[in-house]
Design goal:
The chain has 337 residues and is α+β, with helices and mostly antiparallel strands. It has 13 helices and eight strands.
Length: 337
């Protein structure tokens, strides 16, 4: 099983990196936090032109097919550039609708693929009671048990550790579908959300590390760069090792999901733990090595710092994911010989 991206995946990553590097993603994120969605939605349209959202939509609905590996590669770049909006929730909702034979799929999926629809998804068993960016979404889907609803009221925006991640609690709604097929589709969508969140966290952690390395090279103390101190080198090395150890877990989980392997839920949970914890550690390292300037909201670094913990906990906290890994162990591993 190959866990490394091939040339096509690297080309996709370079394309997204170039697009997002030329865009003012910090400006779009700050506007999004203030409730102005226009810059973020303009960026959303540009991402759609590269096919990012079509990667979650079956070809039947004008997409490229449900391609978890390509989505993981894409979301690493989205995390690196702190792209605002319910990008994870939109692809997860597409994954849900793409597995249901329902008129809502015909209505929404071609629009998602074209970047003309923003969806949010709430599966309380997997992500808690809140929907992300419901105020910016064209539709909010809620799955409770075996019932899929289209939320009619999401209430006011709730406070969040990351102001760019705007939370709301969907209430009520019209029943769209009910039955075991909804349960199965929601399980797939939750797994896809956890995977893409892990990829996003991995990209976020790498961005924090790169910015911190650049900063300690230019900041001086006692007449020498701070980065020359042994303790700083060790801290940065530990951060890099954690991120590099998480990377193959994310790729392996994406490949397992793409192949429909029975081990995919366990692999996704392991990847989510590793990437989330590595990104959170990278945020703590970045904050400590930047010193007091790291606390300032005016510094763009804060946009990445504030995402680390919410991404670590979104779509599966570390404790929940570790419990899932243990619960899904093969029977022969359950008891020591």
């Amino acid at each position: 099983m190959r866990f490394l991206p091939d040339d096509e995946h690297r080309d996709l990553a370079r394309t997204l990196d170039a697009l997002l590097s030329s865009a003012d993603t910090p400006g779009a994120a700050r506007a999004w936090a203030a409730g102005d969605h226009a810059p973020g939605l303009a960026l959303w349209s540009r991402l759609a032109e590269t096919g990012v959202f079509a990667l979650a939509v079956p070809e039947t609905y004008e997409g490229m097919g449900q391609l978890p590996v390509e989505l993981a590669v894409s979301f690493i770049e989205l995390g690196r550039h702190a792209v605002p909006g319910p990008v994870v929730e939109t692809v997860a909702a597409a994954g849900l609708l793409g597995r249901l034979d329902h008129p809502e799929a015909v209505s929404w999926l071609p629009r998602v693929a074209a970047g003309k629809a923003v969806l949010s998804l709430c599966v309380p068993e997997s992500c808690g009671p809140y929907a992300l960016d419901a105020d910016a979404a064209d539709a909010v889907l809620v799955v409770a048990g075996d019932t899929l609803r289209l939320a009619e009221d999401t209430g006011p925006v709730q406070p969040s550790a990351d102001p760019v991640r705007r939370l709301a609690r969907p209430l009520g709604g019209t029943v769209l579908a009910r039955g075991p097929e909804v349960t199965a589709a929601a399980a797939y969508a939750s797994g896809l959300a956890a995977l893409t969140t892990a990829a996003q966290a991995l990209g976020l952690g790498r961005a924090l590390l790169d910015r911190t390395v650049a900063y300690v090279r230019q900041r001086t103390q006692f007449g020498v760069p701070v980065g020359s101190f042994q303790a700083v080198k060790h801290r940065l090395a530990d951060t890099l090792i954690a991120l590099e150890f998480a990377r193959p877990l994310v790729y392996a989980a994406a490949l397992e999901l793409a192949q429909g392997a029975d081990t995919a839920p366990r692999g996704i949970a392991a990847a989510k733990v590793a990437a989330g914890e590595a990104a959170y550690a990278a945020a703590r390292t970045a904050l400590q090595l930047h010193g007091a300037v790291g606390y300032t909201e005016e510094l763009d670094l804060s946009l990445w710092l504030r995402k680390a913990r919410p991404l670590r906990d979104a779509w599966g906290t570390p404790a929940a994911c570790r419990a899932r890994v243990l619960a899904l162990r093969p029977s022969e591993e359950a008891e020591p010989a």
